[in-house]
Design brief:
Elements lengths: L2 H19 L4 H16 L3 H8 L2 H4 L4 H5 L8 E4 L2 E4 L4 H4 L4 H9 L5 H7 L1 H5 L10 H4 L24 H4 L16 H6 L2 H9 L8 H5 L20 E3 L9 E2 L5 E5 L1 H15 L5 H34 L33 H22 L3 H41 L8 H22 L1
Parallel strand pairs: 3-5
Antiparallel strand pairs: 1-2, 4-5
Length: 441
Amino acid sequence: MNKISIGLAIIAFFLIGFSTAAHAQKNEVKDNACVGCHTMTGATKGILNDWSMSKHAANNVTCNSCHAADQEDKDSFTHNGRLITKTPSPGDCSKCHPDQVKQFNAGKHSLGWTKMEATSRYKAIPEELRASMCEGCHNIGKVYADGSAGKCDSCHTRHLFSAEEARQPEACATCHMGPDHEQIDYYMTSKHGVIFDIDRNTTRAPTCVTCHADGGTHDVSQGITLGTVSQGAFISDRNSGNDYVTSPDGIVMRSITREDFNSGRTTMLSICSRCHSESFARDVLERADEIKRQSDAKVGEAIKIISDLYNDGLLDPMPENRPPNPVTGNKLTLTGHQTYSNTSGIEAQLFEMYKYALIHAWKGAYHMNPDYAHWYGWAQLNLDLDKIKAEDRRLRRLAELEKAQEAEKTGTKAKVPGFEAFAAVIALAALVSIILIRKRR
């Protein structure tokens, strides 16, 4: 027997002997056996390293505390004689953190997965690509075998599960970025973010959790009014809850009552007023409200233009001549389940307008970022609307020319674009000529 074999035999004897001798300390046996085996194999070195630095480790919350499973658990399996689960769920976490899980369930993060699965854009993506795209962020609301929803390690990355780490703005950056919701950039390039980045001092400037997770709550929706998820919300006589309805401007979003609005605004003002005067905070938020209303109206103009083109049969191609939308089929679908593929050029322009520029305008304003509110938001909205108006004119002129050509082929009389005005000028010139000739006589 060589030295390596002898060494392995000694280690195996030690582990077996340790396991047998410690039956009286049942929890310690199960927990330390995991650490010993995984340390020996080196298969999960990063996991062990993170866990060893965690508060869990310091408080003897070890592998078995989270990974132990019951026989009836749908995702349980046997591993080295122990029944475990590979992925502990929020239901498992709630055994020690019931308040945090309850708060999380009350917020919009908990709906991330179910809302994603229902959307046309997700359904339109090839299935083999989804895990690297939508699911990478929306799994914060992942639904587990026990029915509980959420992915605590989206913010408290495993296996350190650091609360301090989750409080940093950068912890939000993986998901809250990109052309459709650049919250991390709205914040980091605002005066709040710049001050925090200079000295990392939360007594001088707020971070994401200061406003959106006040007091450590895991309900990140608290205090948000018109600026809620996706396309935001509008004030109505009814609360649509987690459902989406069509606003007066034609944009699919949530509706909230005036009472909902006042309650959320009071909450946010109480947070802002810890650093600012209430009058200053109210003024900033009310200006952002108005930016949202006027920005929504710009998109509403574009929606009406495209709807009129559809009613006149002038979209190129028309919805019935395209592959169907995964949710709405061959209906005209603007905002909401609108996709960025298998569409017309003018609808693609609207997609960029409402999904990117519109969001930058009002989310930039709520985050006190003037450049996003103006140049990336309001200015781009106006430019996009002008492009849509120009495309509308082009499509209508093209349709008239096609009618005229068709009429010429069939020998029927048809109006030629601009002919009426030209004919009127000729007739007027002829009339003037007749009058002048008569005067000379």
